[in-house]
């Protein structure tokens, strides 16, 4: 009988421990959106095709609970592509191109409290600077068109964590957008596919806030 009581006591303690663990995990929440349109590189020319139309992913709506220590972890993951095409001739012996993609996360339309942005224009996900020089071409009288050319394309997958804390309880809208840096000399950029995930977390040390 004593042994049976000890087994019941152990099972009861185990059940309490497991239920506490489930309760702690259930305090968080998860939301996400995606666009599966793919960006690709053309085999013959290196040009970028496809990609997500527009400059944003679908917004994510998340309901934030009350209490100290609540924060959101926002993770935009994007495949990005950059295209540059440097051309040289006897009259143009150098070529400079610069193109990049910058991603911005906003909560309720502003970036004021989003780390690491804190009111800035966003975070660089990809950028390329290309400088090509061939001064010898100026002495070639037969070089009247394109005498030297470098075409370079890249695709890269990027994921970055943004954070925001001290939000008022209630429903908030998370938006992810991007813009092209440079691109005035024939450069191009492409995005897709892309996802954004939003996870609500809570610091269970109730006397302190979230440390960024």
Give a written overview of the molecule.
- The longest helix has 24 residues, at 2-25.
- Strand 2 and strand 3 form a beta hairpin.
- Strands 1, 5, 8, 9 and 11 form a five-stranded antiparallel sheet that branches.
- The chain starts with a helix and ends in a 10-residue tail after the last strand.
- 21% of the residues are buried.
- Residues 1-26 and 207-212 have low confidence and may be disordered.
- The chain has 212 residues and is mainly β.
- It has one domain (28-202).
- It is elongated and about 75 Å long.
- It has one helix and eleven strands.
Tell me the strand percentage band: over 45%
- Compressed to H and E, one letter per element, the order equals HEEEEEEEEEEE
**CA(first)-CA(last) distance:** 54 Å
Query: Number of helical runs?
Result: 1
Low-confidence stretches: 1-26, 207-212
Quick one: overall form?
A: elongated
The profile of the biggest β sheet is: 5 strands, antiparallel
What is the average of the pLDDT values? Answer: 80
Gyration radius (Cα, Å) is 26 Å
Query: How many structural domains?
Result: 1
How many beta-strand runs? 11
* Range of helix content: 10-25%
Structural class per helix/strand content?
mainly beta
Structure summary:
With 212 residues, the protein is mainly β. It has one helix at residues 2-25; strands at residues 29-35, 39-41, 48-50, 60-64, 70-88, 94-107, 123-133, 148-159, 162-165, 170-182, 188-202.
């Amino acid at each position: 009988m004593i042994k049976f009581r000890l087994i019941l006591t152990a099972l009861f303690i185990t059940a309490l421990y497991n239920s506490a663990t489930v309760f702690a995990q259930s305090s968080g929440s998860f939301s996400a959106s995606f666009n599966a349109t793919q960006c690709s590189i053309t085999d013959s020319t290196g040009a970028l095709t496809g990609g997500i139309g527009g400059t944003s992913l679908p917004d994510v709506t998340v309901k934030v609970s009350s209490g100290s220590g609540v924060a959101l972890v926002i993770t935009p993951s994007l495949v990005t592509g950059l295209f540059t095409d440097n051309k040289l001739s006897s009259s143009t012996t150098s070529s400079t191109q610069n193109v990049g993609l910058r991603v911005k996360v906003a909560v309720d339309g502003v970036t004021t409290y989003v780390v690491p942005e804190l009111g800035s224009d966003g975070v660089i996900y990809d950028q390329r600077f290309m400088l090509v020089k061939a001064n010898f071409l100026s002495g070639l009288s037969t070089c009247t068109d394109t005498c030297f050319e470098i075409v370079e394309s890249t695709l890269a997958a990027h994921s970055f964590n943004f954070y925001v804390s001290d939000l008022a309880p209630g429903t908030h809208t998370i938006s992810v957008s991007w813009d092209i840096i440079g691109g005035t000399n024939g450069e191009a950029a492409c995005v897709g596919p892309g996802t954004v995930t939003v996870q609500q977390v809570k610091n269970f040390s109730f006397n302190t806030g979230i440390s960024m």
